[in-house]
Specification:
Layout (H helix, E strand, L loop, with lengths): L2 H5 L4 E3 L2 E3 L7 E5 L6 E6 L3 H20 L2 H16 L2 H12 L3 H24 L4 E4 L2 E7 L2 E5 L5 H15 L2 E5 L6 H12 L7 E3 L4 H10 L5 E5 L2 H12 L4 E5 L5 E4 L5 H12 L12 E5 L3 H13 L19 H17 L1 E4 L21 E4 L6 H4 L6 E7 L2 H9 L3 E2 L1 E5 L3 H10 L4 E4 L13 E2 L2 E2 L4 H6 L2 E7 L1
Helix pairs in contact: 2-8, 3-5, 3-6, 3-7, 4-5, 5-6, 10-11
The protein binds NADP nicotinamide-adenine-dinucleotide phosphate and magnesium ion.
The site of NADP nicotinamide-adenine-dinucleotide phosphate has 34 residues, from helix 8 and helix 9.
Length: 481
């Protein structure tokens, strides 16, 4: 596939075919994060395109939902294989749209969704679709048509969390990818076509959130609306969906804490925490952006953290020497620099700050580069500790013992993820249980792509991925005899 076929898209994927948008001349330009140039374009869809896509998904639903788990599983595996054929293209295009380094793009932006899709194929075989309570037979049924609205930071991973779960459950889908990074969704549509998914099972409409996203959220033909993105937009989507009593699943922002207790190896725990915070240049919803450390260890923590940051060479995402790519957009860069300025007034800057990273010649290159930045002596009540920055900015917050550390971790409007570092297994487990968040890793426990993912508090409602993520797209019916 030539590069321009990947980057320049002129049709939506609806009802198993490439369909010209209702307004064929309106396009959404996609920007190259590495230099600010135009990377490509996709259709700027309208409510009429959403109408067609929802109708296609509705008419495909009866046959798709009637297939056996085995048949759906086979189809999902064919989709996985067809997507694997496009892995290099997806990794390349996401690196340029989002700014993710090639290594992380291969492993996380594309490798991870391929794994989770295989996991969904397996989950389709093991849905517990019947249970008995007294004289009732409880049957689990596909919920219907799923509307999927996704963000730009892990564009393919977020999309697969919804599409894989919905298809495994027996639902059909209409997707609306983020305007900043829509191109991998089109590769998924190519894969759906190559895999021979039945027409209308997977549909894709691109465009603005305020038009295409809003139309999906308000559409009475959508049974479950699954959204990943900011808390602000999530709240407006839930309000829009409420008019039809459409079920909503929301995966929103975070401000997660890595809590280091007083009995651990600082080298290992601090290095892992800093790398977690800066993954994908900090544009990760579950990033541990607050590092909560014993007060008397703070100086040593700063030393180790700065040592890690110094090695994070900032540069072009496709340059193999780069460890930290640019941010995804000019708006994102401005917002992160604003937070860095706020942080300088609120805490002690120990690394980075405003200005260009080393080795980035000047702003005329047009890429959205910022310096990895670390603040120490951060008060958890300050703005940089409470608000999601979504860039490579780490807050080091001192604590005075386990109780205080857990209090700080929980003193946040968000509750998406967290980490606990402690040599004593019981003490670590106790702290992990008390952190009010959807995912907590003890001593760097590995990310599990089959575990349910989602948030407490303002980080969302519902869970996605793995078997639990399939159940989210089902309804329960009680039949009495
Ligand atoms: P966003 O601005 O909320 O956008 C998310 C999606 O919603 C995009 O497709 C967007 O379209 C669309 N949208 C915008 N306004 C809409 C409206 N009024 N009605 C319907 N849809 C609308 O979020 P983002 O800037 O793409 O992503 C960053 C945020 O996502 C961060 O807060 C991050 O924490 C969160 N996130 C959460 C998770 C999680 O699993 N919890 C994972 C990743 C990211 P446009 O692109 O056209 O604006
Ligand atoms: Mg946005």
């Amino acid at each position: 596939m030539p590069d321009s076929a990947i980057t320049h898209r002129t049709a939506h994927f609806i009802g198993g075919a490439w369909v010209a948008p209702a307004q064929p001349h309106a396009v959404l330009v996609v920007t190259n994060a590495a230099d600010g140039s135009d990377l490509g374009s996709v259709p700027y869809g309208s409510a009429a395109d959403v109408e067609l896509a929802v109708a296609a998904a509705r008419s495909a639903f009866p046959a798709w939902s009637a297939l056996s788990g085995q048949e759906r599983s086979d189809a999902i595996l064919r989709l996985r294989d067809a997507l694997a054929d496009r892995a290099a293209a997806a990794s390349w295009v996401i690196s340029l749209e989002v700014g993710t380094t090639a290594r992380i793009s291969d492993a996380v932006q594309v490798g991870l969704p391929l794994k989770t899709l295989a996991g969904f194929a397996d989950a389709a075989l093991h849905i517990e679709d019947e249970l008995h309570i007294g004289n009732s037979t409880i049957v689990r049924e596909p919920a219907g048509v799923v509307g999927a609205i996704t963000p730009w930071n892990y564009p393919l991973h977020q999309l697969i969390g919804k599409v894989g779960g919905a298809l495994a459950a027996g639902c059909t889908v209409v997707c609306k990818p983020a305007g900043l990074a829509p191109l991998s969704a089109f590769l998924l549509a190519d894969a759906a076509e190559a895999a021979g998914l039945p027409a209308g099972v997977f549909n894709l409409v691109s465009g603005a959130g305020s038009i295409v996203g809003e139309s999906l959220a308000r559409h009475p033909g959508i049974d479950v609306l699954s959204f990943t993105g900011s808390t602000e937009v999530g709240s407006s989507i839930a309000a829009a969906a409420a008019s039809n009593i459409t079920r909503v699943a929301l995966e929103l922002g975070g401000k997660s804490a890595s809590v280091i207790l007083d009995d651990v190896d600082l080298e290992k725990s601090v290095k892992a925490s800093v790398n977690n915070a800066f993954l994908n240049s900090g544009q990760t919803c579950s990033a541990w952006t607050r590092l909560v450390v014993p007060r008397d260890a703070q100086d040593r923590v700063v030393e180790i953290a700065v040592g890690v940051a110094e090695k994070l060479t900032v540069g072009h995402p496709l340059d193999p020497a780069t460890r930290l790519g640019p941010l995804a957009s000019a708006e994102q860069k401005r917002s992160v620099l604003d937070y860095i300025a706020i942080g300088v007034g609120e805490a002690r800057l120990v690394y980075g700050g405003a200005g260009l990273p080393d080795g980035i010649p000047d702003d005329s290159a047009g890429g959205f580069y910022v310096r990895p930045t670390i603040f120490a002596d951060v008060d958890n009540g300050s703005r940089i500790a409470q608000e999601e920055i979504f860039g490579p900015v780490l807050c080091i917050i001192p604590h005075d013992g386990d109780e205080d550390a857990i209090r700080i971790a929980n003193d946040s409007p968000y509750g998406l993820a967290g980490g606990v570092w402690c040599s004593d297994e019981d003490r670590a487990m106790e702290a992990a249980r008390r952190i009010r968040a959807g995912q907590v890793d003890i001593n760097g426990g590995a990310f599990n792509p089959l575990a349910p993912f989602g948030g407490y508090k303002r980080s969302g409602m519902g869970r996605e991925f793995g078997p639990v993520g399939v159940e989210e797209f089902t309804e329960l019916k009680a039949i009495q005899r």
